[in-house]
Specification:
- This protein is 59% helix and 7% strand.
- A 3-stranded antiparallel sheet has the order 1-3-2.
- The longest helix is centred in the middle third of the chain and has 21 residues.
- The chain has 224 residues and is mostly helical.
């Protein structure tokens, strides 16, 4: 049975389904914008610095560093400006100029904020899966766990949160989705005649793991 499309998400390929005569009448033109390169981003960041910061607030090479990081990762001017703003906030808080270490700290905090925002708005079942992985790893006191351990922890968390647990197959799909979002890492391991299992690793800073788990508990109105 085909999956129903979420009406809240626009169908971006709708022009492909139009009658050719309609497409000709509309005179559709597809515009593709290339990502900004490092030179473009440097120019944008310098304009922001001149408008928002006092002279000498940015150490030499910082703008180039932020532009290089942004162009390498995404080429998104808005995220480059967000990194500059976060660096400026940390510098003001520390009472210093914007330095290389502060840019690295700002990038790490923005990455954590992205994970928290993503999980905060995620469906309840996806949040429960993430909480279950954290619970299972904590209980096992190990760097990795198998799908069976994670699924047992998931069913326990669902009971605690008042959720109806999904099937093991659906749970595996949720694990794969969390992997896509870089909230965990998973890989399928072959055990020969004993079949296959999925190894799950939570490769995140402990501070971020604690914040994610606390956010999930808050969303479900549970106590730690």
């Amino acid at each position: 049975m085909p999956r129903r499309k979420n009406p809240s998400h626009p169908n971006r390929d709708w022009p492909d389904h139009l009658d050719p005569r309609v497409k000709s009448f509309l005179k559709l033109n597809e515009l593709i914008f290339k990502p900004y390169d490092a030179i473009d981003l440097q120019h944008i960041l310098r304009i922001r610095v001149e408008k928002a910061l006092h002279q000498g607030a940015v150490e030499p090479g910082v703008i180039e560093k932020i532009a290089a990081m942004a162009s390498r990762d995404h080429g998104d001017a808005r995220r480059a400006v967000a990194l500059l703003a976060k660096s400026a906030y940390l510098a003001e808080k520390a009472g210093t100029n914007i330095t290389f270490p502060l840019v690295d700290q700002a990038a790490a905090e923005l990455d954590q904020d992205r994970h928290l925002t993503l999980l905060r708005s995620a469906p309840a079942q996806l949040q429960a899966t993430m909480a279950a992985v954290i619970d299972a790893l904590h209980k096992a006191d190990a760097e990795s766990i198998g799908t069976g351990e994670a699924y047992d922890a998931y069913k326990a968390f669902c009971q605690r949160a008042g959720l109806r647990p999904l099937t093991g197959r659906a749970f595996g799909d949720l694990i794969a989705e969390l992997d896509i979002y870089s909230l965990l890492r998973s890989r399928v391991l072959s055990r020969g005649r004993y079949g296959r299992t999925r190894e799950i690793v939570l490769d995140l800073p402990q501070e971020l793991v604690d914040r994610l788990y606390g956010q999930i508990l808050l969303n479900f109105e549970l106590r730690g």
